[in-house]
Write a structure and sequence with these properties.
Blueprint (H helix, E strand, L loop, with lengths): L1 H8 L4 H14 L3 H8 L3 H28 L7 H19 L2 H4 L3 E3 L5 E3 L1 H17 L4
Antiparallel strand pairs: 1-2
Length: 137
């Protein structure tokens, strides 16, 4: 999210960012401010989130494009497979019907389960490790 904020504001001064972070920490303890933020309508917050995360995606795309053009990155099957697995496992619990999404959930105890981002991260680490073991040396 910080990447999106930097892109939107075009402010990259580290001192100002530290001041904003300290200000945010102090304001977190002010109850009236929390109530004010909670009063912002959900569609407005949704619009802000779309702008913010779109900026993050665009910055990521620019970074990948630059790396690809400068031959720093090679598109390989293992990268595509790992990326798709992370994307599918990470988004499935949110966007699929509950009976299908339950396939993408690992229940550890009654109170603890892995799904969404946590399961996607673990799957990505495991797939990357498996591909690294079988990589040509």
């Amino acid at each position: 999210e910080n990447t999106g904020v930097l892109a939107i504001t075009k402010n990259y001064n580290p001192q100002l960012l530290r001041l904003a972070a300290a200000f945010a920490v102090v304001l977190a303890f002010v109850g009236k401010l929390g109530g004010t933020l909670r009063s912002i309508p959900t569609p407005v917050m949704g619009g802000i989130s779309i702008i913010l995360f779109s900026m993050i995606a665009l910055i990521g795309g620019k970074t990948l494009k630059k790396a690809y053009e400068e031959k720093e990155v090679k598109v390989e099957a293992k990268t595509v497979i790992t990326g798709l697995a992370i994307l599918i496992i990470g988004l499935a619990p949110t966007y699929l019907p509950a009976d299908i999404a339950s396939i993408f959930t690992i229940k550890i105890t009654d109170a603890i389960s892995l799904s969404g981002l946590s399961l996607a991260a673990i799957a990505g680490i495991v797939l990357n490790s498996i591909f690294s073991m079988f990589a040509k040396k």
